[in-house]
Amino acid sequence: MCGIFGYINYLVERDRKFILDTLLNGLSRLEYRGYDSAGLAVDGDKKNVVCAFKEVGKVAKLKELIEESKPDLTKTFESHAGISHTRWATHGTPSRLNCHPHRSDVNWEFSIVHNGIITNYKELKALLETKGFRFETETDTECIAKLTKYLYDQQPDIDFTVLAKAVVKELEGAFGLLIKSVHFPHEVIAARKGSPLVIGVRTSRKMKVDFVDVEYSEDGALPAEQASQNVAMKKSATGLLAPPDKSLLHRSQSRAFLSDDGVPQPAEFFLSSDPSAIVEHTKKVLYLEDDDIAHIHEGQLNIHRLTKDDGTSNVRAIQTIELELQEIMKGKFDHFMQKEIFEQPESVVNTMRGRLDVANKQVTLGGLRQYISTIRRCRRIIFVACGTSYHSCMAVRGVFEELTEIPISVELASDFLDRQAPVFRDDTCVFVSQSGETADSLMALRYCLERGALTVGVVNVVGSSISLLTHCGVHINAGPEIGVASTKAYTSQFVAMVMFALSLSEDRASKQKRREEIMEGLAKISEQFREILKLNDPIKQMCAKFFKNQKSLLLLGRGGQFPTALEGALKIKEISYLHCEAVMSGELKHGVLALVDENLPIIMILTRDNIFTKSLNAYQQVIARGGRPIVICNYDDPEFSSAQTEKIEVPKTVDCLQGLLNVIPLQLISYWLAVGEGLNVDFPRNLAKSVTVE
Ligand code: UD1
Ligand code: BG6
């Protein structure tokens, strides 16, 4: 779970300062993916010498280290390849030694940065040790560097791609990796299997075409015409439950980087685990697919695969991404999390844009249209997710059950896999993930694909693994979420899934009135978010007054508000490190009530719904034990009119949407609790944004 960034310039003169700044800047954009150590490798002053810097801590520390070592920043390079990495330790503690890039030998003949886990590294290490290699780190990655050198030494006239293919063939597990070598100056190999890698391209001239052909081991790439014929054939033959045919996303041939006379042009390439580190340099990006091996050399980009008939497309599109740099910067906010909380009035609108038509009482999810009637006929819908995304599934379970009358289950991906839960061809499995890369969710997706179920993704990151592997899905369009604690992705997932339930129930006459009520509720949500965000200052003060120096906090909710309590408790735990437990109010009397006294801080969600009187029972039970809960309730609720009651008042909406509003004060509470403790909100200890390990 790490961030990779690479920069290659070809016939574009750059000084070392520019190259180092570009790499360091790229790493700082990726810090949310891992931030316990960072490193980079660039060319040294002399030919065939690599200059590597590695440091424990954040990217700023690496920058300091580089400044202290005073490299010649004015040295210029007409062509150059630099690679860098920010780490979140899995194999071996954060240390200079364990941090990437890793090297094949003391001369850095091969330098490697890697994201993911090589599961057979012990076997490879044992083998390479018998060949005389001495390992210096505790990482799994080092074996890739040593293996590359071992294979190169067998055949020193080997081509870089042939070598990379031979290396990749030996690796088991997950990886996104970059290889730089003194034997192949100014070139980089980028390979992916299970970990995302994006390549940004910047050229001064317009690219001739916006595609790159895929080349195969056996007999090279198919001609363009044949490739498009294949696409057409696949299209007509594809049944709805056949493996997803993403080739339909692609168009025709490449030759993007050559001039009219076939000569390579000056070009710069930016490689990254995430487009957010690329957009400030170029909007032209290409997403590598699993098992792709990209070779960047002499201003060209070639994509290779080991086998031809693996069902993937023959071309990779160079797409234009519409991400603006300002979208990934903090702007006027102190933290990304704060910015993202305050972005919610816009992000939910973006989720609904072009999809919800309140005037005509219609919901259209383009990505599901073709599949909606199949889903209606399924025997059950299984939602699978982790963390916050799991809570958003819990939050919409009720509305799915009510509108579709299809049995619904909600599963934590890890537990679902542990149980090897039964899945059948007539199941619809929905994978909800902000990043679209979470290893547990991804493995559960593969498990369901193997069993022939229809798979649907609800993801934020376009081009992510879950988005690519599912049959169909919905992009929630919340924009990049950088803060580790997920906020706007939660509300956008919630809204996207409510729209999914509305689409599924479109054919049910008996549900029309209710559907319209929900659509009208959705149309007002953004404005109501704005109102709630005005509570920012009072909530900040409330946190200082009631929660300072507390050891524990209870959050009570019932029905649709139990998932809200779960999500609020997770937010508080993950960034303020205060123990916080979500309790289903109906369960209070069965045990947790023993904890309640006049000292324990309690927050109770008591907005009005059809089980309000039952929720009030729990409130009375708490009051009777001397508890003084803070209440989240609707405006001017007579039940809580006493001046003694501490309350956070929120607007009222349709019951099944109320959780969208109620979660926002909890997000703000978690934020201000963490800030009050002087904690780094965007980088909570032990956690990372994108958990690509099991
Ligand atoms: C798409 C375009 C959007 C454009 C709109 C116009 C993309 C990413 N979106 O949005 O820019 O404005 O058409 O009609 O190009 N998918 C999955 N799994 C997932 C998520 C999505 O397979 O987890 C698939 C969908 O089935 C669909 C495609 O990806 O085929 C795009 O999904 P989505 O962005 O949600 O579709 P639209 O809202 O139609
Ligand atoms: C991690 C994050 O654990 O993954 C959580 O720290 C997140 O915030 C969880 O909810 C699931 O991530 P995703 O990307 O699958 O929604």
From TrEMBL:
GO terms for biological process: chitin biosynthetic process; fructose 6-phosphate metabolic process; protein N-linked glycosylation; UDP-N-acetylglucosamine biosynthetic process. PROSITE patterns: GATASE_TYPE_2, SIS. Pathway: Nucleotide-sugar biosynthesis; UDP-N-acetyl-alpha-D-glucosamine biosynthesis; alpha-D-glucosamine 6-phosphate from D-fructose 6-phosphate: step 1/1. It catalyses: D-fructose 6-phosphate + L-glutamine = D-glucosamine 6-phosphate + L-glutamate. Gene3D superfamilies: Glucose-6-phosphate isomerase like protein, domain 1, Glutamine Phosphoribosylpyrophosphate, subunit 1, domain 1. SUPFAM superfamilies: N-terminal nucleophile aminohydrolases (Ntn hydrolases), SIS domain. Keywords: Aminotransferase, Glutamine amidotransferase, Repeat, Transferase. Its EC number is 2.6.1.16. GO terms for molecular function: carbohydrate derivative binding; glutamine-fructose-6-phosphate transaminase (isomerizing) activity. Residues 371-510, 543-684 form the SIS domain. Residues 2-299 form the Glutamine amidotransferase type-2 domain. It comes from the Eukaryota. Involved in amino sugar synthesis (formation of chitin, supplies the amino sugars of asparagine-linked oligosaccharides of glycoproteins). This is glutamine--fructose-6-phosphate transaminase (isomerizing).
